[in-house]
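U., I forgot to send this yesterday:
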Amino acid sequence: MPCLIYILEDDSSIASTLEEVIHQMVGCDVKVFDRGDQLIDAVKKATLAPCLILLDVMLKVGPNGAQVARDLHNLETSARTIPVWFMTAMQKLPDLDHVKGVLTKPFDVETVVGIIKRYC
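Result:
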């Protein structure tokens, strides 16, 4: 079964590093979005649902990661069951009701790979 991960990250260096690490170490395909509304639209239209979604909490444009997590949870499709993890360097975290966990930035490769292997 194909492995697909969606990442919401507006820092291009973090996004490209994550994409490369995930592809090389786990073999999953990755789709990166820099705006939450783009990710939500992709989830709604996807023929192959991602096995995991990683959301940056603070974004420069559009809804933040916490709002995207709520929006995903409120979808009337099976997409609401996709595991979602926050990625953040924030000390004070937003509401975690609709996420499985938090990756604290900077994060190490082993932690990222471990989370992916748990869900994909």
